[in-house]
Amino acid sequence: MVNTNRRRFLSASASCAAFGGGLLASLNEGRAQSDEMIPIGQMASLTGPLAVDGIEHKNGLEMACEEINAAGGILGKKLSPITVDSKNQTAEEVTAAARLLIDRHGVHAIINGYNVGANQAEYDPIADAGIIYIHYNTSIGHHETFKSDTQRYFGIFMADPAEYYYGVGLPVMLDQIRKAGVWKPHNNKIALVTGSLPYSIVISNAIRETAPKYGFEVSFEEVVPVPTTEWGSVLNKIRADPPAVIANTHFFPGDLAQCQVQFLQQPTNSLFYYQYGPLLKAFSDIAGEAARGVLTSTVIGILPDEIGTSFRKAYWAKFGEKAEADPGASTYSETYHYAIAAALAGGTGEPGNADQNRKIAANLQRFVYRAPFGVLRYDPTVNAAIPYPTVSSDPSIAMPHLLYQIKDPKAEVPKKLIYPQPYNEADFELPPWFK
């Protein structure tokens, strides 16, 4: 059942909806407006298979900069967003984009969505410049790199939990669904289909490690190339020993939609979980009715509360209802968080001004920001967000790991949030392909 305390909890947070702009306006009060612009950079996939998110990351940055400038900018200076195409997100492409932003444009900060193929290669040129870099790469490699030299990487922040926690969280969420009694699995088996990127591999490894703690076992594993649209071979292998759950940690929405369509040609009584891709409308648009009942998760999904709903409406009003507001919310939110931290520090820091950027970094660690997808709060030991409830049991200080189910593929928002409390808006339902 949906928690009856949800509305009370979320309405208590709703006063934060205008917090960013209102606070900046107060900090800017009495400041003379300056003609000097503050360049803010971004590396985003504007072309290639991940452009569906990259374009929204660009939109989120630009929307935040526009609103911040309307509130007086940062201490009277307005922000100028600059996005460079990171294309297929290889280490070479992302690093080249970062160097261009620093060397040619002199950006004071880089505020990104994700670049999953870079594997921290961009960290060193950014650390050399001593500027703030905030991203959503969702990589356990960030923790390891940051801890290797906390002084060098002081200004590099990962604004969401590492992908590892997706794998840890899935068995926890499956266990909750099983305990609710609606789903009575015919066995305890999980079949793992893993994309060939490190992001997907880390998630699958964590599922395998965590599953036995909750009475599940991984009975099948196969790595598939990225990208891929032909799923018949791996699905036939899974059908030979039908599991209770199929978990596909590849995340390209178009590829996953093809997998779901091909699965329904001969479905088994298995829950189907896909990593991230079904959050985007492209998945439901391609899969159509085959999408109904699919499970997916993220830590940067817009919450179905007053703050989240208001943001989604504003985003659609600006970019159209076909725009994907969820990825846009990530860069939008962290731009506000950065602007507040910089204003409280007395201003931004250009490349080479590490002393000023250390003040901003300290403020990013010190001050919590309530985003449309939950709480932005950094663990200072790794400069990364932590998840609720996997790591922290307190939803007021951690970013919620959200489990969704596709309820209506034709709806404006096809997915409904089913876990965790107190954020959930709907209950789990058995998928329509179950016999």
From TrEMBL:
<dbReference type="InterPro" id="IPR000709">
    <property type="entry name" value="Leu_Ile_Val-bd"/>
</dbReference>
<dbReference type="Pfam" id="PF13458">
    <property type="entry name" value="Peripla_BP_6"/>
</dbReference>
<keyword id="KW-0029">Amino-acid transport</keyword>
<keyword id="KW-0813">Transport</keyword>
<keyword id="KW-0732">Signal</keyword>
<protein>
    <recommendedName>
        <fullName>Leucine-binding protein domain-containing protein</fullName>
    </recommendedName>
</protein>
<dbReference type="InterPro" id="IPR028081">
    <property type="entry name" value="Leu-bd"/>
</dbReference>
<dbReference type="GO" id="GO:0006865">
    <property type="term" value="P:amino acid transport"/>
</dbReference>
<dbReference type="InterPro" id="IPR051010">
    <property type="entry name" value="BCAA_transport"/>
</dbReference>
<dbReference type="InterPro" id="IPR006311">
    <property type="entry name" value="TAT_signal"/>
</dbReference>
<feature type="domain" description="Leucine-binding protein">
    <location>
        <begin position="38"/>
        <end position="378"/>
    </location>
</feature>
<dbReference type="InterPro" id="IPR028082">
    <property type="entry name" value="Peripla_BP_I"/>
</dbReference>
<comment type="similarity">
    <text>Belongs to the leucine-binding protein family.</text>
</comment>
